[in-house]
Amino acid sequence: MTTVHPRSRPRRRSPGWVPNQHGAWAMLAAPLFVGTVASGPTWVHLPLAAFWFTGYFAFFATGLWLKARRRDRWFPPVRVYVPAALALGLVVLAVQPELVRWAPAFVLPLGVGLVAAAQRHERDLVAGLTTVTASGLIAVVAYDAGTGPGGSLDRGWLLAAIQFAYFAGTVFYVKSAIRERGNPGFLRLSVGVHLATTLAMGAVSPWLVGVFALLTLRAAVLPGRGLTPGRIGVIEVVATVVVSTVSLLVV
Fold first, then answer.
1. Name one Pfam family in it (predicted).
2. What is the pTM of this model?
3. Could you give the CA distance from residue 38 to residue 140 in angstroms, rounded to a whole number?
4. Could you tell me which of 25, 49, 21, 26 has the C-alpha nearest to residue 241?
5. In this predicted model, what pLDDT tens digit does every residue of 49-98 receive, in sequence order?
6. Is the model's pLDDT at 10 over the cut of 70?
7. pLDDT band at 123 (very low <50, low <70, confident <90, very high)
């Protein structure tokens, strides 16, 4: 019988290379897509999309590294993604320098998210809502990129607000279905948030009122029914597509 020397075993790949928060993919893609389509796709949207996704990879990897008390094993993805994101950001600014004005708006959400990760509170409600804030902002950034300097951003802001309202609701809904399952107080809070956003959509379109009413119904009925995270994710993919499509049609 042969033995394998410990040094001959392949080293495990350091963690953090691929984000494992599957719900984040919708929050990354949908607002960017909505803002891009609403303003009309241009060449700048290509490096903007690459920067946005690479930036999230850098944010995720850095958060894990901080959560792991800056251990060396967790640092390689940070060393790769952070410079890559910075380089792509410079490409975006080379194509459309005016977009630099949006950088300060992301400082607070980024800072709150990293501090929460360092304190191992990245799944807290505040951290989730700040992430959603950054997600909503990219919709108006993408809209601005397509509209160009001097263009009105009213439609972009409204689309961003709709995206924020939807994804903020999902933060409450998913927590009520998983981490806060069986907590009636949190369930009432989640339903209340959904009712408020449904009423707010009355100022935009009756179609959106109908969509958000259905979201409120799912927030009230589905938690406590034993849905797996996978099934919750599938439902939210469908909801994301519906919200994004209807908002593009009526706004």
1. YwiC
2. 0.92
3. 10
4. 26
5. 999 999 999 999 999 999 999 999 999 999 999 999 999 999 999 999 99
6. no
7. confident
Burial class (CB in 10 A: 0-12, 13-18, 19+), 10: exposed
Q: Which residues contact 48 (CB under 8 A, 6 or more apart)?
A: 32, 92, 99, 141, 142, 145
Report the amino acid identity of residue 54.
Answer: T
Helices 125-147 and 23-39 cross at an angle (nearest 10°) of 20
Closest CA relative to residue 243, chosen from 68, 75, 31: 31
Q: Is 96 helix (H, G, I), strand (E, B) or coil?
A: coil
Query: How far is C-alpha 245 from the chain's CA centre?
Result: 18
Confidence of residue 7 (pLDDT cuts 50, 70, 90): low
Of 55, 60, 78, 62, the closest CA to residue 23 belongs to 60
Structural contact between residues 16 and 65, judged by C-beta atoms closer than 8 angstroms = yes
Alpha-carbon distance 244 to 233, whole Å? Answer: 16
Give alpha helix (H) positions in the chain.
23-39, 45-67, 76-95, 107-118, 125-147, 154-177, 184-200, 206-221, 229-250
Q: What is the SS3 assignment for 227?
A: coil
Rounded CA separation 182/115 (Å): 29
Q: How far is CA 137 from the centre of its chain?
A: 10
Residues with Cβ within 8 Å of 194's Cβ and at least 6 positions away in sequence, in order, are 169, 172, 173, 212, 215, 216, 219, 220
Nearest to 178 by CA among 186, 188, 166, 189: 186
